[in-house]
Amino acid sequence: MKKIIILAAAISGIAVFAQEKKSDTVKANAIEGITLTKQVFKKQSDRFVYDVAASPVAKGNTTFDLLKQTPLLSSTDDKTLKIAGKNNALIYINGRKTNMDAESLVQLLKSTPAENIQKIEVITVPGSEYQVESSDGIINIVMKKKMSDGLNGNMRMSNMQNKYNGSSASLSLNYRKDKLGISGNIFAGENIQAQSYVLRNGTNLISNESVGDINDPNKNLGGYLNFDYQLTDNSNLALTWNSWYNKSNDSTVDLLNTLRNYNTDGSLKSTEQNKSQNREDAHYYNNSLNLNYELKTDSLGSKLNVNAAYLNYRRFQFSDNRTLVSVVPGTFTDFSLLRQQITQDIPQVINNFSGTVDYIQKFKNDFTVSLGGNFNKTKTDNDTKNYSYSYNGSGVLIATKPDFNHFIYDESIYGVYLTLEKKFSDQLSGKVGARYEITKSLGTSDNPQNTVAQYQEIERNYNNLLPYLSFNYSINDKNNISYAFSSRMRRPSFWELNPVKNILTQDNYTQNNPFVKSSSTYNQELTYMLKSSYFLILNHSYFKDIITQVPLQREIIRDGVAYRQLAYIRTNFGDKQEMSAMLGMQKTFFKQYLTTNFNIGVQHNINNGTLNTDPTTGQVFDTYINKTKSTSMVIQTNNTIRLDKKKTWFLGVNYFYVDKQQIELGMLKNLMSLDLSIKKNWNDWTFSLNVTDVLKTNIVEIEDYQSSGNYNYVKNDQFRRGMTFSMVYNFGNQKVKKVRDIEGASDAIKSRTR
């Protein structure tokens, strides 16, 4: 059901100052806990640093909740973290990416209390040494240096009530004995992800409307296990296994479709109704192994880091989509007649072998050289089988059409980088670097129904030089200014390349595209900070060959009646510019009884895209044009209020507002959300109650009018308003820390699975 939802592109367009997703993922590993007293927010070199070493705000909190309180960070769906103005946020631990898939990471962040975090670093424009895509930013969590032998852990239980009830539980353990460190986590949970849709499209003469609900039950089981052994005083060897399983059976889409025809004077000519019922069973497995070796080469911090990894991803999906017509007009029962039935068997298997080598050489004169390389070899196997059944007016089967496509995609990526960093004085520092990447890919399609030669083999080979530059200047103790430039690319996710058509209604579907090519992004950012509390960020991003979904319409004739077909085509769609200015503040008031983060900003979007043909099938649609400019305002504030002197009761009040703005699918209407929370710390227990979207205003609405007369409207309610109650119990020696945290070689590939 997840790939039927057309809002993936819409939500990814809400990249304004820390809003919603796309994407494809966030990444992190196990994190222990937190205790804070003093909060300092400052700019250092290429990053913002939030010192949380001693404030009571985060005592007993989850790592995810703490990150939401960090300046420049937020979450609008309580599932993904965003950096202001960024499409995605990658989470690092002590400067290293982790080897976990996105879903298990989110659950891990929510299930792990924090007690050992020293500071949180927000890198809005990552350097060449970081293997990131597009305009992604990085959240680096720096742990405290406490170490002792022993065992500690925590148990967490939570219950969530939105439209449906969901529950989860987790157990995390961390053991240290001499040179051996073992850490692990197991998580289990179930929920029903509910959504409601209103979809309208057409012209002034023909109108299609689909209204209904989507219910997607999910059962999850996952975790990780890490063994880390200190070979010598300067070297370590580690093996990490991550696993995640998701089962989603009996997902349902029920939509009532209404076709209206109008006369030229605007009066209603005729009305026709049918019902779409989609039932889907899906499950996937995500397993990975990572072997890491680290060697410290001197006392200044120089080191060699080597990783080898294997990733196996397997997803199996079967869906049955039926279009029903009623015997009695307007009434749908079990005796309604079938008009069309489409069954789809859509398996996907991904295997990846990856390796990375990184070397950092530090010199005594505050000069650092970083160089390294990476290799990724990925094969995806997609063996899709579709059957279409057509029925006559009496509900009798009259035709069966098979549609098979075995699509195999092979990709190899080679990358090298070099970064030079120099601190010239206590006031001035700079960093320059470049990453060179070679991508070779080949897609082959064994499709008996398609004889178009170019469709049988799709080859993509390209080289990219990605430069980076930044400097930081401290004018004095109170004023700091910095600038950064970065060039990045975004490769399509593997599911986007699989040429599958997902049916939503008889005349509404999404189409993936094996011809999608990588897009390029160029980012510039200028930052001014005053007194480590107030900041101004000016940002400009240029996106070339954006990868997105484009809504294409055309008129089709079926049984002598004109219909409007709406297809959401996954493709490259022109260019886009985003310019933003944001003012922010991070301060504590009233002897730390109030901690507040406040941001207000404006963003200007310039879209430039045109499309009228499905690149996969060659079908021609009405031309869709998006050359619209828009300016929108954003307000965001996170507030934590301490309610007692003993620092055991805390009240949270968070709010965001996003003005309407133009995205790829049309004009996105304004969004806002008010979230409240109450927390009680009692010995080793923490009890929390969170209420999200209190005013029920976090509902997506997109509207688009073309000069041709075509219009398209989407309203999507994901039932953000809800309540979550959780209990956390910490036990054992709380000073135990893992030997170290390890970056996985296949991290960059994991983000492109789903």
TrEMBL record:
Q: Signal peptide position in this chain?
A: 1-18
PANTHER family the record matches:
PLUG DOMAIN-CONTAINING PROTEIN, TONB-DEPENDENT RECEPTOR-LIKE BETA-BARREL DOMAIN-CONTAINING PROTEIN
Protein name, UniProt field:
TonB-dependent receptor
Q: Does the keyword NAD apply?
A: no
One term under GO cellular component: cell outer membrane
Keyword set includes Signal? yes
**Compartments where found:** Cell outer membrane
**Keywords for this protein:** Cell outer membrane, Membrane, Receptor, Signal
Q: Which residues form the Outer membrane protein beta-barrel domain?
A: 296-729
